[in-house]
Specification:
single chain; 297 residues; alpha/beta; 8-stranded parallel β-barrel; 8 strands
Length: 297
C-alpha cells in the first residue's frame, strides 16, 4: 500500500445541488475527470469535501459513490478524523470502507493537545483502525503543530501508521521531518504551494486541492519533481502559484468549487458557515484560466 500513495493524490470536493443536497452525478463526473487527467489516487471526505458539514448518511453515500465510480482503478483514501479519540475510533471501525486502501486522519483540532496527547491519540487509533493510517498535520486549522519528533516516534512505534500529510507550511520543518522518519514512511505535501519543494526534499508527492481542477498539469509537475527534474517542476509550480492563491483567497473549497463550476464539472455551492465564491473571485479565476490556457496552445 505504501508504494501506491505516491505522486498526485486529490482531495475531492463534495458537489452540491442548488438546494445544497449532495450532487451524486456531479461527484461521479469529478471522479472521472481526475482519473482521466492522470492523478495517482483519490482522497474522499477530507477538509476540502466539507466533511464537517456532512451528515453520517451523506458521508456513507460519498464514500460509496467514489468507490463505485473509481471501480478499482486507483487507490482510495477515506478521511476519518476529529478531536474525540474514542468517537474517531468507533467511526473507523463502523464505516463501510470497501474499496478503500487507507485512512487519512487529522491531528486533533480545537483541543490543542500536547505532543504526548497527539502521540497517544494516534497510537490508540492505530490499534483499532481497519486500514493503514496517514496522519494529517495542518496547524492553521487544528491550533497545534505535530512536531517531527512526534511523527517519527509514531512511525517507529505503530506499524499501522504509514505516512503523514504535512501542511505545516514550513519547508525547514518538512526537511527535518523527512530526515527524522524511516525511509519507507510516506511524507506527503498537504499544501499545493509546498508540493514541489516537498518532493524535491525527498517527499513522495502531494494531496492536492487544485489538482482536481487541473489534474493533467498537477500530475505532470509532481512526476517531474519525483524524477528529479527540478527546473521544469519548479517552473510549472511558479506558473500555478497565482491560481493557488486565488482558489484559497476566500476559503477552501469555495475557490476550487468555482473553478470546477467554470470547467463544467459541478456547481459552486458550499454549505454554511462557508460562503460561495464572490463575483470578483469568479472573474479573477476566469481571467487567469483564459490566459493560462492561451499560453498552453
Amino acid at each position: 500500500m505504501r508504494s501506491e500513495l505516491k505522486g498526485t493524490g486529490v482531495a475531492l470536493v463534495t458537489p452540491f445541488r442548488e438546494d445544497l443536497s449532495p450532487d451524486i452525478p456531479a461527484l461521479r463526473k469529478l471522479v472521472r475527470h481526475v482519473i482521466e487527467g492522470g492523478v495517482d489516487y483519490l482522497v474522499a471526505l477530507g477538509t476540502t469535501a466539507e466533511s464537517a458539514t456532512l451528515a453520517p448518511g451523506e458521508k456513507a453515500a460519498v464514500l460509496r459513490v467514489i468507490a463505485e465510480e473509481n471501480d478499482g482503478r486507483l487507490p482510495l483514501v477515506a478521511g476519518i478524523g476529529g478531536n474525540n479519540t474514542l468517537s474517531v475510533a468507533a467511526e473507523m471501525e463502523s464505516a463501510n470502507l470497501d474499496g478503500y486502501d487507507a485512512i487519512l486522519s487529522v491531528s486533533p483540532y480545537y483541543s490543542r493537545p500536547t505532543q504526548e496527547g497527539i502521540y497517544q491519540h494516534f497510537k490508540y487509533l492505530a490499534h483499532r483502525a481497519p486500514l493503514p493510517i496517514v496522519m494529517y498535520n495542518v496547524p492553521a486549522r487544528t491550533g497545534s503543530n505535530m512536531l517531527p519528533e512526534t511523527v517519527a516516534r509514531l512511525a517507529r512505534d505503530c506499524q499501522g501508521i504509514v505516512g503523514i500529510k504535512e501542511a505545516c507550511g514550513d519547508i525547514a520543518q518538512i526537511h527535518t521531518l523527512i530526515d527524522a522518519v524511516p525511509r519507507d514512511f510516506l511524507v506527503i505535501s498537504g499544501d499545493d504551494l509546498t508540493a514541489v519543494p516537498t518532493v524535491l526534499a525527498g517527499g513522495v508527492g502531494v494531496i492536492s486541492v487544485l489538482g482536481q481542477a487541473l489534474p493533467v498539469e498537477f500530475s505532470i509537475m509532481i512526476r517531474q519533481g519525483l524524477a528529479g527534474e527540478s527546473g521544469p517542476a519548479t517552473d510549472l509550480s511558479e506558473s500555478l502559484r497565482p491560481l493557488i492563491g486565488l482558489i484559497f483567497r476566500e476559503g477552501n473549497p469555495a475557490g476550487v468549487k468555482m473553478l470546477l463550476s467554470q470547467l463544467g464539472i459541478c456547481r459552486p455551492e458550499v454549505r454554511l458557515p462557508l460562503m460561495a465564491a464572490s463575483a470578483e473571485l469568479s472573474r479573477d479565476l476566469d481571467t487567469f484560466m483564459t490566459a493560462f490556457l492561451r499560453e498552453k496552445v
